[in-house]
């Protein structure tokens, strides 16, 4: 009987997903319950449901040739991109050889030390939302999140969003002309000596879109004590997460659960200097280690194959302050449609 109910539930999820696609195609809006259906189908199929939908989406927005000119980073030639993508497909991550220049990291650090941010609630905590400037000597919480509107209007962030060495990898990996859809920056602090699920400090997989890739940029030096990012190699692949873990659903997982299913060599700790760029498919299992000393400042730029999925608060560029971004928006409007104009992608 339980198996029958589960089969009926998954069948209804498939119908829900089909209806949601129709609604999105017409109105550019994804029904609220769609994410629950996406997660259940992902867990039941080991990822095959996402793979199938991604192939359909690839027909609608095929990749377009991109300029190989220099941006913040040195340009990547086509053969270099072609070498990076198989690494991403096999491992789930790729560490860029070149780093973001130190002067950009310094400017973004100055921004993060002078711009108010929301202090995220911790596990079991209930209070009014606090906005504060982060004081390294007196942190008020485990995580400080900057408003996306403030982040995307910073000229250095705009330059990174438009960098051909980043966009080209996103497009080649996703197999579509991508959409920049989540840009965020946050502090992790040593406020608590225990990991916090609200701060994403337990292992988990993401499932906000059908397919996506994230670019994590360290804006401070990160040692084992500063809350390094962790990723489980190969867990992004279809059937890369064991069924007994997927059966738990969209939950946080303990280190012990991960260590009992994967060899130590596949659990990667990213200790690295500031300016490091990590491209990662966070469909795989990952976490940010809790900070023991000091802090960590991270910038994240996400590209997806579509905006199909949950609706985030709409923000837009107040002003395009980077000339390359202006050029990229003119040549590839879909890539920046989420921040430039209303509409669906």
According to CATH, what is the topology? Jelly Rolls
CATH superfamily: q2cbj1_9rhob like domain
Low-confidence stretches: none
Strand content: 15-25%
How many beta-strand runs?
11
- Which architecture name does CATH use? Sandwich
Q: Number of helical segments?
A: 12
SSE series: HHHHEHEEEHHHEEEHHEEEEHH
CATH class: Mainly Beta
Overall 3D shape: globular
Radius of gyration: 20 Å
Biggest sheet details: 8 strands, antiparallel
Overall mean pLDDT stands at 92
Kindly report the spatial arrangement of strands forming the biggest sheet.
Answer: 1-9-6-11-5-4-2-3
Judged by helices, strands and strand pairing, the structural class is alpha+beta
- The CA-CA distance between the termini, in Å, is 41 Å
Helix content range: 25-40%
Count of domains: 1
List keywords for this structure.
single chain; alpha+beta; Jelly Rolls; eight-stranded antiparallel sheet; three-stranded antiparallel sheet; 35% helix; globular
Fold and architecture overview:
The model has no long low-confidence stretch (mean pLDDT 92). It contains twelve helices and eleven strands. It is an alpha+beta fold and 345 residues long. Helix 1 crosses helix 2 and helix 4 (78-91) crosses helix 8. The protein has one domain: q2cbj1_9rhob like domain (Jelly Rolls), CATH 2.60.120.620. The radius of gyration is 20 Å and the shape is globular. The strands form two sheets. It has an eight-stranded antiparallel β-sheet. Strands 8-7-10 form a three-stranded antiparallel β-sheet, with no helix packed on it. It is 35% helix and 16% strand.
């Amino acid at each position: 009987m339980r198996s029958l109910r589960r089969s009926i539930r998954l069948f209804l999820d498939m119908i829900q997903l089909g209806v949601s696609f129709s609604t999105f195609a017409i109105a550019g809006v994804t029904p609220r319950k769609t994410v629950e259906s996406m997660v259940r189908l992902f867990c039941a199929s080991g990822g095959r449901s996402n793979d199938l939908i991604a192939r359909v989406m690839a027909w609608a927005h095929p990749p377009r040739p991109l300029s190989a000119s220099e941006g913040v980073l040195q340009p990547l030639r086509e053969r270099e991109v072609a070498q990076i993508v198989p690494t991403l497909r096999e491992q789930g991550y790729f560490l860029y050889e070149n780093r973001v220049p130190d002067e950009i990291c310094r400017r973004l650090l100055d921004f993060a030390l002078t711009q108010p941010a929301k202090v995220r609630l911790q596990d079991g905590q209930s209070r009014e939302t606090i906005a504060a400037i982060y004081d390294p000597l007196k942190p008020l919480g485990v995580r400080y999140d900057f408003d996306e509107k403030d982040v995307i209007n910073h000229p250095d962030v705009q330059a990174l969003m438009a960098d051909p060495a980043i966009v080209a990898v996103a497009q080649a990996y996703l197999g579509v002309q991508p959409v920049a859809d989540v840009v965020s920056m946050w502090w992790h602090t040593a406020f608590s000596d225990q990991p916090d699920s609200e701060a994403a400090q337990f292992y988990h997989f993401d499932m906000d879109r059908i397919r996506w890739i994230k670019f994590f940029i360290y804006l401070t030096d990160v040692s084992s004590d500063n809350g390094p990012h962790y990723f489980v190699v190969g867990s992004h692949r279809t059937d890369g997460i064991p069924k007994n873990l997927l059966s738990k659903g969209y939950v946080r997982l303990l280190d012990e659960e991960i260590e009992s299913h994967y060899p130590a060599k596949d659990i990667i700790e990213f200790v690295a200097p500031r300016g490091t760029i990590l491209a990662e498919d966070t469909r795989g299992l990952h976490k940010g280690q809790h900070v023991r000393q000091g802090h960590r400042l991270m910038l994240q730029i996400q590209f997806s194959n579509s905006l199909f999925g949950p609706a985030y608060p709409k923000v837009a560029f107040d002003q395009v302050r980077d000339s390359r971004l202006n050029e990229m928006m003119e040549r590839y409007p879909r890539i920046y449609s989420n921040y430039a104009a209303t509409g669906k992608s």
